[in-house]
Design brief:
Blueprint: E1 13-20, E2 30-37, E3 40-48, H1 57-63, H2 67-70, H3 76-87, E4 91-94, H4 97-111, E5 119-122, H5 123-131, H6 133-136, H7 142-148, H8 159-179, H9 185-192, H10 196-204, H11 210-213, H12 219-226, H13 229-232, H14 235-238, E6 240-241, E7 245-246, H15 252-262, E8 266-272, E9 275-281, H16 282-289, H17 293-300, H18 304-307, E10 314-316, H19 321-331, E11 335-339, E12 345-350, H20 351-359, H21 361-370, H22 375-382, H23 385-394, H24 399-427, E13 436-440, H25 442-446, E14 457-461, H26 468-491, E15 509-511, H27 512-525, H28 528-537, E16 541-545, H29 547-563, H30 565-573, E17 594-595, H31 597-615, H32 623-632, H33 640-663, E18 672-673, H34 679-693, H35 695-704
Parallel strand pairs: 1-4, 4-5, 7-8, 10-11, 14-15
Antiparallel strand pairs: 1-2, 2-3, 6-12, 8-9, 11-12, 13-14, 13-16, 17-18
Length: 706
C-alpha cells in the first residue's frame, strides 16, 4: 500500500550524503550537503555550509574542507528549505544514512527548523541483504562496496561524490536484491528490519534507526484513526462491481487488451465467481512486458496462471471499510476481492480508486457550492470540509496546502452567496446599478483559512453616479446586497464577523473613489483603528465581479503605502509578538492547557511579512508568496524565508487540533492543547517563539536601516 508496494527501480529517490565537522551526530555540524536522484542525474544538490564552528584539522584531512572554504558559505538555515523541498515525497538513500539523518535532525533542532522525510533506506544494510553478512565482513566501507559493484569512485569524500557513488551502488545491487525476493520498498523495509545486530550498533552510536521508523503505519491506516468515513460505510457501498474473471490459460496480451477496453486495473483468474484462483493487476502486466524488444513477443504469451498472485485476499460485502483498509495495509497490496456471504466474488476494492474518491472530495464540495441555490445548500457542502481536511492531513498533505483548499471553499461560498444575492434583487426588478466586485478579506484572502472562519468581506462598485441622489441609491443597493450575502453566509454556518467587517456595513461597502479616499485616510492618519483596517483589507482577493475595479484599487493601495515611511513604521510596531506567548521561564503560556498559536505565533509572522511586502511594493497576498517575493528582491536576510516555514508548521498544528476538537463535538478555535504536542513539536514552537521575540529589530533593519 502506498510507497511500500512500489518496486525499487520505480521509487522516487534521493541519494543523500553529508560532510561534517566530526562523527558525533548530536554535536557536530554540517559543512557540505550533496544529493542526487539515482535515476535522473540532472536533479542534484551540492552546497557548502558554514557550520559556525571551526572545522578540526583531522576532519579536514578526510574531506579537504577547511574554514576558509566555508567562510562565505550560507549557514544551514539559509539552505535547509531547498534541501527539504528536494527531499519531499522521496525516499532517502545513502551509505549509513542513519548517521546523516541524525545529524540533520540535530541541526534542525539547533536552528529551530522542521525536518521530516518520507522514508529511508541504508545502502550498507541493503548490501548486507543482497550479498550476505559474511561477504560484508570483507567490505568495510563505501569505497570497497563501490569497487565490488564496479562503480566509479571519483570525487570520494565530497558530499555529492559520495551521494553519486551510493546512487550507482543502489542501481547495481537491484538484481542481487531481486534474487533475495526484495523487489519493492516494503520488501526492503522488512528485510533490513531483521538486521538486529547492525541496527543495534548504529542506534547505540546515536544514529537514526531507519528500519524501525519505516515500520510505522501506512497513511490510509492513520486516516482511519481520525476519519469517521471508514467506520460509517460498508464495503458494498464503495466497492467496484462486475469483476472480470479470466481462465488461467489466458495470455498476458489478451488480459491487457481486456483491461484496456474495460478500463480496469486488475482481473481475476479462475473458472467462476466461486472458484477464484488468483489476481493479476496492471502493474503485473507492465512488469511482464518490460523486457528487451526481442523478448516482448514471448512475454505476451505468458499465461495468467503462471504470473497471478494467489491466493486472493478478500473481504466481505458487509464488512466496514476500515476492515478493508487494515487488510490492504497488513498484506501490502493494492487490490482486495469482495465476496458475498457464500464466498463468491462480487466485486473488488482498488487502492487507486479509494485514493481517487478521497482526493475528489474537494471537487465534490466545489461542485455543490457552484450549484447551490440556498444557504442550506452551502451549509451542506461546507459540512464536508472537516472530513476533507482530516483526510488530506492523514494523507500527508501539508497544513498550508490544506488551508489553501479550505480557503478556496470559503471563497466559493462567498462567491455563490453574492451571485444568489444579486439574483434575488434582480428578480425583484432591481438589477445591479453598475459594475462591482466582491472581495474576501483576511485569512481567506491570503489562502490561510482553517476550520474556525467567520465572515470578512467587502464590496467595491464603480463611480458612475451622476448626482448625489443617484450615488445614495447605488450605495443603498450594494449595502442591501451585502446584507443578503452576510445573512446567507451566517445561515450557511459562516458566522457574522464580530468586528462587523462585512459588506453590509457602510465602511466596507464603497465606490472605488470612496475606497481610495478611505485608504488615503488610513495611511495618512494611521490611527489604531486605521492600522487594524489595513491589516484586514490589504489581504483582499477578488471572488466575484469586475477584475479591473479590484486591480485599480490594489495598485493604488500598494503604491501609496510603500511611499509612506511613517505609516510603515507604525504598521511595523503593530506586528506585536514581543513576548511570543512565553512564560517567565521560557515555556508556552497557556490558558486551561491551551496555547493561543494564532495570537502568539501566526499573527506576528503574517503581519511581519505583510508590512515588508508593502514596503517593497509587492502585491502578493499569501504569506509564502510574500516571503518568496521578498527574498527575490535581494534586500532582505535569508531568515525571512524561514517565517514562511514557521507559518506552515503552525498551521499544521492548529489544523490538527481543530479536526480533533470537531470530532469531539467542540467548536474549533485558534488554540492548541499543549499536552498533544510531541517533544520535537514543543522544541520547534519554542524556537519559533525565539525568532518572533526578535522581530522588532529585524523589521527595523529591513525597513529603515537601508
Amino acid at each position: 500500500m502506498g510507497l511500500a508496494t512500489i518496486v525499487l527501480d520505480n521509487l522516487p529517490l534521493l541519494s543523500l550524503d553529508l560532510e561534517t565537522t566530526g562523527l558525533r551526530p548530536k554535536t557536530d555540524r554540517i559543512v557540505q550537503i550533496g544529493a542526487v536522484d539515482p535515476f535522473d542525474s540532472a536533479v542534484q544538490f551540492d552546497q557548502l555550509v558554514n557550520p559556525g564552528i571551526p572545522i578540526p584539522a583531522s576532519t579536514t584531512a578526510i574531506h579537504h574542507i577547511d574554514d576558509a572554504m566555508v567562510a562565505q558559505a550560507p549557514n544551514l538555515a539559509a539552505v535547509f528549505s531547498s534541501l527539504r523541498g528536494l527531499a519531499a515525497n522521496r525516499v532517502l538513500i545513502g551509505y549509513n544514512i542513519g548517521f546523516d539523518l541524525a545529524v540533520l535532525q540535530a541541526e534542525a533542532n539547533r536552528h529551530g527548523l522542521e525536518w521530516e522525510w518520507t522514508g529511508a533506506l541504508c545502502i550498507r544494510q541493503l548490501a548486507t541483504i543482497a550479498l550476505g553478512s559474511q561477504a560484508m565482513l570483507m567490505i568495510s566501507d563505501l569505497e570497497a562496496l563501490a569497487q565490488h559493484y564496479n562503480i566509479s569512485q571519483a570525487n570520494r569524500h565530497t558530499a555529492l561524490g559520495d551521494a553519486v557513488m551510493s546512487a550507482g551502488i543502489f542501481q547495481a545491487m537491484l538484481p542481487d536484491l531481486k534474487e533475495k525476493s526484495v523487489t519493492t520498498l516494503g520488501d526492503a523495509w522488512r528485510a533490513v528490519g531483521e538486521l538486529d545486530q547492525t541496527r543495534l550498533l548504529q542506534a547505540n552510536a546515536g544514529w537514526v534507526d531507519v528500519a524501525a521508523l519505516n515500520q510505522q503505519a501506512e497513511p490510509l491506516r492513520s486516516l482511519a484513526r481520525i476519519d469517521p468515513f471508514p467506520y460509517q460505510h460498508r464495503i458494498h457501498e464503495i466497492m467496484l462491481h462486475n469483476p472480470v474473471i479470466l481462465p488461467a490459460e489466458t495470455t498476458v496480451l489478451q488480459a491487457a487488451e481486456r483491461m484496456k477496453s474495460a478500463k480496469l486495473d486488475c482481473v481475476f483468474v479462475g473458472n467462476s465467481a466461486d472458484k477464484i484462483e488468483g489476481i493479476v493487476s496492471e502493474r503485473d502486466v507492465v512488469h511482464a512486458v518490460a523486457l528487451p524488444l526481442s523478448e516482448v513477443a514471448t512475454a505476451r504469451n505468458i499465461q495468467l496462471g503462471a504470473m497471478m498472485s494467489a491466493p486472493v485476499i478478500t473481504v466481505r460485502e458487509q464488512d466496514f471499510m476500515h476492515v478493508g483498509l487494515g487488510r490492504i495495509g497488513h498484506h501490502d497490496i493494492r487490490h482486495l476481492g469482495v465476496v458475498d456471504e457464500n464466498g463468491a466474488l462480487t466485486g473488488w476494492l482498488s487502492l487507486r480508486e479509494l485514493t481517487r474518491q478521497r482526493l475528489t472530495q474537494a471537487v465534490v464540495i466545489g461542485d455543490k457550492l457552484s450549484t447551490a441555490i440556498s444557504a442550506e445548500d452551502i451549509r451542506s457542502a461546507l459540512q464536508e470540509l472537516p472530513l476533507l481536511a482530516s483526510s488530506l492531513l492523514a494523507d500527508g498533505v501539508r497544513g498550508d496546502e490544506i488551508a489553501s483548499v479550505v480557503s478556496g471553499e470559503y471563497r466559493s461560498s462567498l462567491r455563490r452567496a453574492a451571485i444568489l444575492a444579486e439574483q434575488m434583487l434582480t428578480d425583484q426588478g432591481r438589477p445591479p446599478p453598475c459594475d462591482y466586485a466582491v472581495l474576501v478579506l483576511g485569512s481567506a484572502g491570503r489562502g490561510e483559512s482553517l476550520l474556525a472562519a467567520d465572515q470578512d468581506h467587502a464590496i467595491i462598485y464603480a463611480d458612475t453616479a451622476d448626482s448625489p441622489q443617484q450615488a445614495a441609491l447605488h450605495q443603498s443597493w450594494f449595502k442591501e446586497c451585502g446584507q443578503l450575502i452576510a445573512d446567507m453566509l451566517d445561515s450557511a454556518g459562516i458566522p457574522y464577523c464580530p468586528g462587523k467587517v462585512m459588506s453590509s456595513q457602510p465602511e466596507w461597502c464603497r465606490s472605488l473613489k470612496g475606497w481610495q479616499e478611505a485608504i488615503k485616510s488610513w495611511i495618512g492618519k494611521s490611527r489604531p483603528q486605521d492600522l487594524l483596517n489595513v491589516d484586514i483589507f490589504f489581504d483582499f482577493a477578488l471572488v466575484h465581479g469586475d477584475v479591473q475595479l479590484a486591480g485599480r484599487l490594489r495598485r493604488m493601495m500598494t503604491q501609496r503605502a510603500a511611499a509612506n515611511r511613517g505609516f510603515l513604521k507604525l504598521l511595523a510596531r503593530n506586528t506585536g509578538g514581543a513576548q511570543a506567548g512565553m512564560t517567565l521561564f521560557g515555556g508556552l503560556k497557556t490558558d486551561n492547557g491551551r496555547f493561543h498559536i494564532k495570537l502568539h505565533i501566526l499573527l506576528p509572522l503574517i503581519e511581519t511579512l505583510r508590512v515588508l511586502a508593502i514596503s517593497r511594493g509587492i502585491e502578493a497576498q499569501n504569506s509564502a508568496a510574500r516571503a518568496e517575493a521578498l527574498l527575490k528582491t535581494g534586500t532582505l536576510p535569508a531568515e525571512i524565508g524561514q517565517f514562511s516555514e514557521d507559518i506552515k508548521f503552525s498551521l499544521k498544528l492548529l489544523l490538527r487540533q481543530q479536526i480533533k476538537d470537531i470530532s469531539a463535538g467542540l467548536a474549533p478555535s485558534s488554540k492548541i492543547a499543549v499536552e498533544g504536542l510531541s517533544p520535537s513539536e514543543r522544541h520547534l514552537l519554542k524556537a519559533i517563539q525565539g525568532r518572533i521575540k526578535n522581530l522588532e529589530p529585524l523589521i527595523q533593519a529591513c525597513l529603515f536601516d537601508r
